[in-house]
Amino acid sequence: MTLSPQAAIAWEVGVTLLQAIAIASTVVRLAHRWRTDRMWWDDWTAFPPLFFDIMYVIILWLRVATIHSSRTKGEVFLFSTIFNVFLFRSVVWLSRISLALGISRIFPPKHRCRYFAFGLAALFLCAYIVNITTTALFHAGPPASACSTEDKECTRAAVRVWIMNLITLTFDAFADVILVVTPPIMLWKVRLPRNQRRLVLALFSSSILSFLASLAFVLVWMLNSHLGPNGYFIMMLCAHLQAFVCLLVCNLLVVTMLFYRVFRRVTLPDPSPTSESSFDPGLPEHPSKTHTTISNPSAPTPQHLNLSRLSDSPPETQSSNSTMTFTTIYEGSSLPSTQLSALPTSRSDSNGPTWTTTPSFDDTSSSSKTPPWSFPE
């Protein structure tokens, strides 16, 4: 049974909408990293798959536009199998490279998991080169439409294509299994708040979606001869589906954390409803230049303490200090942690002590301070 032109266009519209989601997620991720001055290797390597995926979608619709053209699709290089496989494999493997570099970004410098992620990215790059090379070599020969069962050259070309597909699918399965297994193992012993820990592990484990898309492509490729005239069209849709999933998974952690942070800003309740917070909106939003003071409104004019002079005060005027440490996972391993120290002043009046909260931000690059994440060596 052959699909009608209307049904084929409906399927292509659905695939295009999915591809638009992946492209939009990449644009949001890159715009956010550029705006916050957080561009790194994983972000720069996300540009090529974005470009190739846009071209891949455009060619999908150019096929529809040239159905009634006098030139056949086989005569146009844009519609050739080699070029389409090149775009498809470029989106898939470059997205995996960006994801591997994103995993390495989480860990501090000289950490063994960071080096392992770098090696994983290099391995994916080698697999990408092998895929493109085998595609260029093994697809050389007469087209399948011109072949007959008695032609030995066509038989050899079919064998070469089968070997190329087998190598490609083996690499796909190997890469997807690594991306599914390694992130939870590397992040299992990282000390995080429970809700953030579950979120990070779930997002990195989303690579299983890429594995399922690769599995669907393998099944369609194996059953291509039993699908009739719709076999190539279904395989093309599965290829677009796999490209969509790989590009989306590549950006999922950054985009989800961005919306997670915005959601927490909107819904996080005031931890001290009885106190007043003084904040100057004119100050730049930089950790080293942010200062928040919480004081008792019923007390006289509060006198802010200088932390460097605490050691000079008499022991009887100092009370036990309570310290709260908040960690963040939003911007990678180089993010600072926020430490709020609530220290009572030495004023002894009837209205009670005045509390001054001074945020200090620790840079994880400094070896003398504790990083926001605790990584086992």
UniProtKB/TrEMBL annotation:
Keywords: Membrane, Transmembrane, Transmembrane helix. InterPro entries: Rhodopsin_dom_fungi, SAT4-like. Residues 353-377 have a biased composition (Low complexity). It is found in: Membrane. It is a multi-pass membrane protein. Residues 28-215 form the Rhodopsin domain. It holds the Pfam family Fung_rhodopsin. Residues 290-322, 336-352 have a biased composition (Polar residues). Residues 270-322, 336-377 are annotated as: Disordered. One of its GO terms (cellular component) is membrane. The keyword Transmembrane applies. The chain crosses the membrane at residues 6-32, 44-64, 76-94, 115-141, 161-187, 199-221, 233-260. Belongs to the SAT4 family. PANTHER family: INTEGRAL MEMBRANE PROTEIN-RELATED (PTHR33048:SF47), PTH11-LIKE INTEGRAL MEMBRANE PROTEIN (AFU_ORTHOLOGUE AFUA_5G11245) (PTHR33048). This is Rhodopsin domain-containing protein.
